[in-house]
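INFO  loader      accepted 1 record
INFO  loader      residues=95
INFO  predictor   begin
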Amino acid sequence: MNKEDNMKYTNAEHTAIQDGTKSIPVSVGNRDYDQIVADGLLDTIEPYAAPVKTWEEKRNEERGSIVSQWAYFIDNGYDALKAKDDAIKVKHPKR
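INFO  predictor   done
INFO  writer      dumping tokens
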């Protein structure tokens, strides 16, 4: 491995390093990890950056599945479903 490789942590807990097509567990005794340390490359690894969700993803996540939306509609009616959806739209506006 060399400094030109684009290595980065692959999760927030920093338990794995992504190097091209392989994932290297961060643990002493792992020969790939030990080689990164021996080469002095550990400080050059980019920290994990969580992907930013779009407003659409945030809305869909909060709305839930179509089945749960139907269940809410059946239990509470159209006006309640519309009010809930409007609140979600206010919380996660288009950008």
